[in-house]
Write a structure and sequence with these properties.
The chain is of the alpha+beta class and about 100 residues long. The protein has one domain. It is built from two helices and five strands; from the N terminus they run ββαββαβ. A five-stranded antiparallel sheet has the order 4-3-1-2-5.
């Protein structure tokens, strides 16, 4: 079924944004998700929540999957992301250049 790449961006530290010293990301096998979580993820790709103006210091999640050799990415508010996807994200410090 494939793997999802999940990135958490924004927040107080601006995680994952240009100039950030912290990267928050993870991967999750689609087949390891419950049927309900698989349906929730599919719904995010089929009908993403409207892009509302982001509030200060809130997180958004960028979820990427590969379908028939093409990458698809959706960026959604934290409230729309299943807990199983949030749980696979970990923070990493980016070494200085």
């Amino acid at each position: 079924m494939g793997t999802l790449k999940i990135e958490r961006v924004g927040g107080l530290a601006g995680f994952g944004l240009p100039g950030s010293k912290v990267q928050s990301s993870g991967e999750q096998s689609i087949s390891a998700l419950s049927a309900a979580d698989q349906a929730s993820v599919e719904a995010l790709f089929q009908n993403p929540p409207p892009q509302e103006e982001q509030q200060r210091d809130t997180f958004r999640y960028r979820i990427t999957r590969s379908v028939k050799g093409k990458k698809q990415t959706v960026e959604v508010p934290e409230s729309a992301v299943p807990i199983a996807l949030k749980a696979c994200v970990s923070d990493k410090l980016i070494p200085p250049d």
